[in-house]
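Quick illustration for those who missed Monday's session on complexes.
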Amino acid sequence: MSNRVSKVVLVGTGAVGSSYAFALLNQGIAGELVMIDVNKEKTEGDAMDLNHGLPFAPAKMIIRHGDYSDCYNADIVVLTAGAAQKPGETRLDLVEKNTRITKSIVEEVMASGFNGIFIVASNPVDILTYATWKFSGLPKERVIGSGTILDTARLRYMLGDYFNVDTRNVHAYIIGEHGDTELPVWSHAGIGVIPIFDWMRKDPKYKVEDLNDIFVQARDAAYRIIEKKGATYYGIAMGLVRLTKAILQDEHSILTVSTYLDGEYDHKDVFIGIPAIVTRNGISGVIKMELTATEKDRLNHSIRVLKETMNSVNLS
Ligand SMILES: NC(=O)c1ccc[n+]([C@@H]2O[C@H](COP(=O)([O-])OP(=O)(O)OC[C@H]3O[C@@H](n4cnc5c(N)ncnc54)[C@H](O)[C@@H]3O)[C@@H](O)[C@H]2O)c1
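Prediction with nicotinamide-adenine-dinucleotide bound:
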């Protein structure tokens, strides 16, 4: 290990990207942050603004705007560039536009000599993670999508509220496509170490049908937020910082990221949101849960929908 500071390059400093930069600075996770965007003025302004917060930050950090040549020695390149969902638009509607943008960015990043880890957040995130893997030629372990990290966080927050328990003690995953076909894994959900259905038996006010309502609210939260304020960015930004920290600090944390399935859950050749172990070298393993027949069917459906959309775009 050298004492070189950890370096993150962020491509796309719109709502999600700049929120990520702000959260990264506030948590003191990286030694250096370089920002790139087609809107250069914006990255210059963001660098100035963020630097002025350094006297209040928990750790020293170099923050600047830059270009693709800065990626050659980056530990992580984070992709938050591209068009965002408009009201009523699904994440899959964005696929063609954002695949083209991702291709041009990944080619420039790789031309710098980059040999680190990609984190992808742009939507549709599972397809763009696959595209980044294809376009970059990097090992699959080193291309990680934000997957259902945010959906899972939304579910845990809402369950914490429902059960009046600290959200950090709620253990429940949303898996599958980050989008309309995702699913909750109730068969492996728990509060502390108590399985969720056992916890619910403690009080008749808890109803199994409420769980489905909570899941639907978590799944559709982005639509509600976009209707109200045009975009979602704080939650995902914090999720991306959590992922960045798990990588840079070699945490071996389990997070529901978009990762490559190579036979796990009987699927191959797809990036999809699944709990996986995140380390300094990327993904070291996928968590294999014994799903119920219904959960398995829903995961199969999610993957089928994703693959159909993927087949409609040029990923070469
Ligand atoms: N994964 C998640 O959970 C999640 C959550 C929220 C948003 N998103 C996605 O993140 C992406 C960004 O959302 P946003 O709200 O920040 O959008 P935004 O429009 O505010 O920002 C996008 C940025 O990308 C830049 N950009 C566009 N083309 C570029 C290129 N070729 N090279 C460099 N920069 C380029 C734009 O100039 C802009 O600054 C969207 O695809 C959105 O759907 C993902």
